[in-house]
Amino acid sequence: MNTTTEPFAAVEVIAAKRDRNVISDPMIDWVVDAYTRGIVADEQMSALLMAILLNGMNPNEISRWTQAMINSGERLNWSMLKRPTADKHSTGGVGDKITLPLSPLVSACGASVPQLSGRGLGHTGGTLDKLESISGWRADLSNQEMLAVLESCGAVICAAGAGLAPADKKLYALRDVTGTVESIPLIASSIMSKKIAEGTGSLVLDVKTGSGAFMSDPERARELARTMVQLGVAAGVKTVALVTAMDVPLGLTVGNALEVRESVEVLAGGGPADVVELTLTLAREMLAIAGISGGKDPADALKDGSAMDVWRKMIKAQGGDPDAALPVAAHQEQVLADRDGVIANLDALSVGVAAWRLGAGRSRQGERVQAGAGVEIFAKPGDTVKKGQPIMTLHTDTPERFARALEALDGGWSVGEKTAPRMPLILDRIGSQDGHIN
Amino acid sequence: MNTTTEPFAAVEVIAAKRDRNVISDPMIDWVVDAYTRGIVADEQMSALLMAILLNGMNPNEISRWTQAMINSGERLNWSMLKRPTADKHSTGGVGDKITLPLSPLVSACGASVPQLSGRGLGHTGGTLDKLESISGWRADLSNQEMLAVLESCGAVICAAGAGLAPADKKLYALRDVTGTVESIPLIASSIMSKKIAEGTGSLVLDVKTGSGAFMSDPERARELARTMVQLGVAAGVKTVALVTAMDVPLGLTVGNALEVRESVEVLAGGGPADVVELTLTLAREMLAIAGISGGKDPADALKDGSAMDVWRKMIKAQGGDPDAALPVAAHQEQVLADRDGVIANLDALSVGVAAWRLGAGRSRQGERVQAGAGVEIFAKPGDTVKKGQPIMTLHTDTPERFARALEALDGGWSVGEKTAPRMPLILDRIGSQDGHIN
Fold first, then answer.
1. Do B50 and A55 touch (CB under 8 A)?
2. For residues A34 and B353, what is the distance between their CA atoms, to the nearest angstrom?
3. Would you tell me which of A378, A426, B254, B432 could form a disulfide with B95, CB atoms 3.0–4.6 Å apart?
4. Region B130-148: what's the mean pLDDT?
5. Is A21 on the interface with B (CB under 8 A)?
6. Largest separation between any pair of C-alpha atoms in chain A
7. Choosing among A14, A50, A175, which should be mutated to test the B contact, i.e. which has the most B CBs within 10 A?
8. How many CA within 13 A on the CB side of residue A235?
9. Which residues of A are designated catalytic?
């Protein structure tokens, strides 16, 4: 693969990391760029990724790798906006619909929110999949359309264009088929390259931990959070991370249209307590880091309808009808309490996999999802129930899916004498002060 | 890549080794076979190879992996021969022409020697490249031609056909471009899958160590030797390994025709002492392990011309003319002693790289080599020299190569007061007794 015009050979870079050496800045710049250009082959990059996964990267290597991925594409710029920009990213969880109420809420309180989002894969849902259950709503906007929605509404939620960090897109697809996903340096650089390329001035990260999260171990979640905060700060983006619970589903709905319904409830001043609490906490973090103080408190913006106004305007600006009835699945099945008692546990992973199997998620990129499919929850850990009372309703358009969804739930919930210990909603906050991550 | 008809997904196998688990027998059988069939992609196999390189394989995994590679192709069978078969493999060294005199010698002493060999890549030469400097000699024989030469001469040296361990051929090419060559389990299984598929009843391994060897560290060389002996024994092949010195070139010639000339000198009862000693030692090991005792001693077969008779017959049987003059390079340049004294050192790697750069070796598979190119040595460590006396003659058809060859030699030899410490020619012998490798 090495030709006289290339400064390195792929094997040199692979061998350096394989032998536990530091990869130099010029090597990192070259290997990411050469991979994007097709000079470094997939089989060479996957060997390097496995060496990175097993031997790690130091903070400078991770930062340079991230920068190289940003440099592979365009970098958006929102300096023409009058208001400071604030963005949020979640590592993904079961029932995590927070972006939906959060973006209009933060806009209503004074920041611009250019929220570029993704689709779901596996047991965690994708923000775009959820919003696409709204009749007419379009995820794919040109940069010009994105700017127009941002200027008129103060918030936009749309798909990240192909021009942002193309190296990351190629690497992400490769990691998926080569067992090289579970590396903190690679996860952190993938997320942060996209977020930094999106051009936000400040960023709040919601790093999930617990059974339903990608990082089930809180210590690994903290490490991921610290790594991402370092990367943001190094790139000049004000960044803070919360480590939050994903041992139990967020809220009472898991599934695309079901989660939109719940998000609208929150915007209307209602909604489940945990969703409201996390939405408000993240909104306050975003406003603080964007330097907005003394304005309207997010709790008031939910009560007075101003967040709902932004939501409706934003949905309309992207072709959606905020008043259209949401899709409902054709078939339902109930899960009933098998005894009197309290809900002892309700495992996020089990519910996430059940919703996925019901048709709310996809197994392969490009697969269609069912808008109405998912799980509606009626009782959460600590709630008292009577035998025969519905605990969950499963929704799907394809009733042959019920059996495997019920299998996923088997052992994932129980009624007992008392509630099992669970995580606090917010486990940790990692920010940077004078360049120190803490 | 996983389809309903495949028992595993590639990512499962990769993740098992990545997470330091043992890969099960069915997984190994499947992944090697599926890679050969193109179901497992190059980028998946290279990630697995890197995980194997960094996390290792246990003896059962290595043995199963080897067997799976053997099963990917045909396995030769020499049971129709009247005499026991003995084969030898060297891991490659500078000036290592031992196969040339050894094969006819062992045949002259009573064993059949089906010696399937390779071409050179990098600074170590290939047996087939050397023999091809003999006018008319053909390396590529059908299985039937191979058998005919073996029956008429008792020895054959030819190219391994494409039908032997095709999985290894594909893996070898992949490892070369993905930085996954330097793994003892992968090296051992690659060598042994070919050797076992070649169908020999007994095998003597010459594992080189020192600067000019692939395994410069003697401890790693011993580990490779032990691993290969275990694999041979597990597959029912009587196997013994010698660990031998490659800190200084073997003999006094490095290069294709130059090494044929020296081999013929050995067969004529002369030749450099180290080449003769290693040839005799390996011949005695091969005869012993093949169960041949009380026959002609190899030293006598060199003296009485019987080994030379087999050589001439074997070369003729493969279309070569043993009496034809060997090619001589068009240009020569001498390296002279810069002072009076003794040769303190003569580094194998430096001389190997010099010969390679002069045109004796290739940088890419398929490249042509120069028959006459190489290095002729006149003084070895311990020899007394006078200032201005020739130490080496460099040979090439392309004189613009002299400068870079001289660069490679710079610092690779010196004249001083006394000889630097050097390795004994034979460092270790690893055999198996009652299933124990020792």
1. no
2. 29
3. B254
4. 96
5. no
6. 76
7. A50
8. 33
9. 89, 168, 175, 190, 194
